[in-house]
Amino acid sequence: MKLLVEQCAQRQMAMLLISHDLPLVAEHCDRVLVMYQGEKVDEMAASQLSQATHPYTQTLWTCRPDASTFGQMLPTLDRTQPWKETPHGTR
């Protein structure tokens, strides 16, 4: 990632980063668009990812392991929930 970020800065280029690792995205991107089952569910500044209200975005944000979660179960996605029709107005 460091090399990609350096190259973009040197060449004054943009970078499109496609990832499930939202903490990594928040570190290296300005804006974020989150998709679930081919539909946009969230769009925001990367700095606001930790405050996302959509359940899918929240799950992606919290499912990254780190030292504080060692030995614990990480959150998983409840695929039975119809997240396309959320009351958040995030569509």
From TrEMBL:
It is an enzyme of class 3 (hydrolase). Keywords: ATP-binding, Cell membrane, Hydrolase, Membrane, Nucleotide-binding, Transport. InterPro entries: ABC_Ni/Peptide_Import, P-loop_NTPase. Its EC number is 3.6.3.-. One of its GO terms (cellular component) is membrane. GO terms for molecular function: ATP binding; hydrolase activity. The keyword Ribonucleoprotein does not apply. The keyword Membrane applies. It is found in: Membrane. Belongs to the ABC transporter superfamily. This is Glutathione import ATP-binding protein GsiA. It comes from Leclercia adecarboxylata. The lineage of its organism: Bacteria, Pseudomonadati, Pseudomonadota, Gammaproteobacteria, Enterobacterales. The gene is gsiA_5.
